[in-house]
Amino acid sequence: MKKLSVKLGILFYLIIFGLMTFMFFFLHEGIVESRVEEELSALQARGNSHRAILEKYFNRETIDHVVLMESESTTDVVITDRSGEILGSSVQGSPFQEYLQPVHSDIPWGGKVIENEWKKGPYIATISPIRVNDQPVGYVYMFQDTASVHSLIKGLNEHFIMAGWISVFLTFIIIIFLSKGITKPLIKMKEATSQISKGDFSVILPKTSNDELGDLAKSIKSLANDLGYLKQERNEFLASISHELRTPLTYIKGYADIVLKRNLAAEDREKYLTIIVDESNRLSRLIKELFELAKIDQNSFVIQKERIDLVHFMNKMEEKLSPAFQEKKIKLAVECHPDLCLYADPLRLEQILFNLLDNAMKYSREGAKVTLKGWKARNSIHLSVKDSGKGIPEKDIPYIFNRFYRVDKSRTRSLGGTGLGLAIVKELVHAHGADITVTSEENAGTEFEIIFHEGAQMQ
């Protein structure tokens, strides 16, 4: 993760440094051009000022006065007549001769720049025409040594270099804190995932802002909680399986040894063999249900939906289960709206209702009533199994669909339950895209309701 922070820091630095260099370059060029334009404008304005005086008093005295003024200034002036003959100059000799070429009458009254190559040339220069009675009588040439411009630009460059180094330093510091700020929660998350990979799911992540990093931290925390729950559930599941398998095997082995090694009376022998058969059936049923759950978990079974006439379907269920209910002296009633159809897998639907009805029969007393009911609501079809048995304590309701969870653990063996029936029911109901709910009141009864939504029926 330190490598990531270094990579991020270098990446940010290169991006920001590139942007800063780009902006500094254009800003520098803009300021330089602006300063040169200001110098040229000031030079032109100075020449125009001299021109204005000379237009009023175009004589030797005024020319000498203008020349005298410029001889004490950082700029120089050359005044010529219309033919280009020098009338006055603030500099001895002819350093400006190359600029004093014959001029045309098309020079605007406001003047113009005749030399602006400050980088290569020794001077920048402007010209202003002198007009008397709208006729050109001469010209004012203004010159400024480019050394002063270079000095100005040099000072500007020094300021830019200083600002650049300060910006680079501050950017470097900011990027260090920024990269650490970004990578610190990532380092915490890496440590958390490493902790999870070692089987420790009690991870604690710092609170982060509501951004992508915050969402990632929440996801990791949620994953840790889910894995912790799955680990606990797996351990409980394995413990339950070992218990459920060991118990019938113990009975089978124990009574088989008794039958094999002892000389028993026919009645005792038959009793022990009956126990062995019952425990073998129980073991077979448990293994079958475990295979069912394994298929569901691996999605290796297929839901094959077809159109089911619920009235006919529920009447067939009643025919199959009535003998068992009559033996227990429990009444089974079937109620279904006429012409009610459902798209579902008939074998799986029968398995769902059989498990619910079997539970209802096991936990109901003699003389009780169990009702299988089907009806249509607005956009859904409802099936319910309702009994008037002992009910489920409120504290147990959230867990009854968990594997191997039993409400009445003391009576489980006598009732023959494995604790997997409702888990299978829940998975099969969800495989149909339906929902299952349960309402119960102790000593009053329990009702399981399956809701097939209209959209899920055709899937």
> How many helices does DSSP assign?
10
Strand content: 15-25%
Quantity of strands, as a count: 12
Q: How much helical structure, as a percent, in the residues?
A: 55-70%
Rg, please? 50 Å
Q: What kind of sheet is the major sheet?
A: 5 strands, antiparallel
Distance between the termini: 46 Å
Shape designation: rod-shaped
Mean of residue pLDDT values: 80
Question: Under CATH, the topology of the largest domain is which?
Answer: Heat Shock Protein 90
Corresponding CATH architecture of the largest domain: 2-Layer Sandwich
Helix and strand succession?
HHEEEEEHHHEHEEHEEHHEEH
What does this molecule look like?
By secondary structure, the chain is an alpha+beta fold. It folds into three domains: 2-152, Beta-Lactamase (2-Layer Sandwich), CATH 3.30.450.20; 212-297, Orthogonal Bundle (Helix Hairpins); 306-457, Histidine kinase-like ATPase, C-terminal domain (Heat Shock Protein 90), CATH 3.30.565.10. The chain has helices at 2-56, 60-71, 146-197, 212-261, 266-297, 310-327, 346-362, 412-415, 421-431, 454-457; strands spanning 75-81, 86-89, 112-115, 123-132, 135-145, 306-309, 331-336, 341-344, 369-376, 380-387, 435-441, 445-453. Strand 4 (123-132) and strand 5 form a beta hairpin. Helix 4 runs antiparallel to helix 5 and helix 5 (266-297) packs parallel to helix 9 (421-431). It is rod-shaped, with a radius of gyration of 50 Å. 22% of the residues are buried.
